[in-house]
Structures are given as C-alpha cells and as structure tokens.
Amino acid sequence: MSAATLPAHPTPLDRVRWRFDHWRQTRHRRSPIPEALWTVALAAARTHGVYHTARTLRLNYTDLKRRLGAADGAPAPAPFVELLSVPSPGSPACTLELATARGTKLRIELQGITPPDLTTLSRTLWHAAR
C-alpha cells in the first residue's frame, strides 16, 4: 500500500499506517514522530496489540511498549481467575500468597493438594511472576 492510496475497504489500522507512510514521505529528515501520530499508534496498540501495531506501522516495539505503559500509568493488575473444584471431605486446605519486590502479588487458595504438588506449583508460579 503506498501513501497515496488506501485499499478499497481499509481497516482502522490501514488508516493509521497510511498516516505514518504519508508522514514518512513528507517529513524533514530525522525529525521525531509527531505526538498526534504517537497518539493514534497507542490507540492502535491497545486494540491490535503492541507487536502487531509496531510491525504494521514500522515502529520500534520497545518504544511503543514504553509509551503505552507511560500513557496508561501503572501496569494493570492481572485479572482474577477462579477455578472451582469439588473438594472431598477431609482434604487438606491451604492458602498460598506470593509477592515480588516490584509489588506483583499472587494469592491461591487450595484444597486437596499434597505438599509435593504445592512445591511444584509455587515454584512454577514464582518464576513466571518475575
């Protein structure tokens, strides 16, 4: 797709890409990307993901991700996920709480899990949270 034309049925990301292509063809050499273009790029990244947006718009992935994090403030907390199972009578129960130095927290309430399973689970989750 050239900067002069858009496809017959452009997607919103096609329109943003056209704006970037047009800017690249008309800008002064080595000039920074205007804030208006960064704004639409951030909106596209929220919708289409950082990687896909960076690749489509030919932007630096790390710069786009950093700007998105700064624009959105602190990282959003991980969603709450509840997995339900029917505990058997007399099964052991425990609560596992993990926290990293950066403030990431994980709380798991378990029933019917044996100590070796708990050790494996906590190690796996702890390393994934880092």
The total count of strands amounts to 2
Outline type: elongated
Question: End-to-end span in angstroms?
Answer: 41 Å
Strand content: 5-15%
Question: What is the count of helical runs?
Answer: 5
Largest sheet: 2 strands, antiparallel
Question: Poorly predicted ranges (pLDDT <50, ≥5 residues)?
Answer: none
Task: Please tell me the overall pLDDT.
Answer: 79
Oligomer: single chain
Radius of gyration: 23 Å
- Assign a percent range to the helix content: 40-55%
Pattern of helices and strands: HHHHEEH
Quickly count the domains: 2
Strand order of the largest sheet: 1-2
What do these coordinates show?
This protein folds into two domains: 12-72, no CATH class; 77-130, no CATH class. The protein has five helices and two strands; from the N terminus they run ααααββα. The protein has helices at 12-26, 35-48, 50-57, 61-72, 115-129; strands spanning 93-99, 105-111. A hairpin with a 5-residue loop joins strand 1 (93-99) and strand 2. The chain is elongated. 8% of the residues are buried.
